[in-house]
Sequence to fold (83 residues):
Amino acid sequence: MVHKKRVLAIWLAVQLVIFSTAAHAYLDPGTGSILVQSFLAGLAGAVAVVSLYWQRVKAFFANLRKSSRDVQSSATSTDNDGV
Fold:
């Protein structure tokens, strides 16, 4: 069944390519500016999301490093108590 769907999809794609006609579409300069604005907005959004999560990642590793220092300092303090 999956094979039949794949063959049908390939056949449809070939038919669309073979029998397509020219669109003669006009893209005005405003279309280009909208595309640029969309790209820049997406880039700004991605930077904002990364910066939000970057703070969390830094905080996680800072806490991890702090807890490992606490473990090391408590281990050395218990070692010195026995001396």
